[in-house]
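RECORD TYPE: inverse folding
INPUT: structure tokens
STRUCTURE:
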């Protein structure tokens, strides 16, 4: 791999939305990823991951 400096993940809370955020710094770029979950979803996280894996395998 390259010599990019990757810092450890940090979970923070933003006061405006109260949504958790994943912050990742790679070199001089900071990536902030906010996570949210649908309150109306009928699919569990496990079901979603299985569905995504099946779709990925079908594309191979």
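DESIGNED SEQUENCE:
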């Amino acid at each position: 791999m390259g010599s990019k400096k990757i810092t450890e993940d940090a979970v923070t809370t933003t006061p405006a939305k109260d949504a958790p955020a994943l912050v990742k710094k790679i070199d001089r770029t900071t990536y902030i990823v906010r996570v949210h979950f649908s309150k109306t979803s009928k699919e569990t996280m496990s079901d979603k991951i299985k569905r995504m894996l099946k779709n990925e395998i079908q594309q191979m």
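NOTES: The chain has one domain: 10-58.
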